[in-house]
Design a protein that fits this description.
2 strands, mainly alpha, 7% strand
Length: 56
């Protein structure tokens, strides 16, 4: 009985890790899209120069 419970526990843990990793990939993809849009859409500053939406 104990080996069966250990296998089931291992399956649940691995499923949870897989779900978290998949969710992190979707979050990374969304951040990448926002980052690329920042390069495409520039705004003009007070001096007439084109600036990025972020400050680095």
């Amino acid at each position: 009985m104990m080996p069966v419970l250990l296998v089931l526990l291992l399956a649940v843990v691995l499923f949870g890790i897989g779900f978290v990793v998949k969710a992190l990939w979707w979050i990374a993809l969304a951040v990448l899209v926002v980052w690329l849009l920042g390069f495409l859409f520039h705004r003009t500053g007070a001096t007439g120069r084109r600036t990025h939406w972020y400050r680095w």
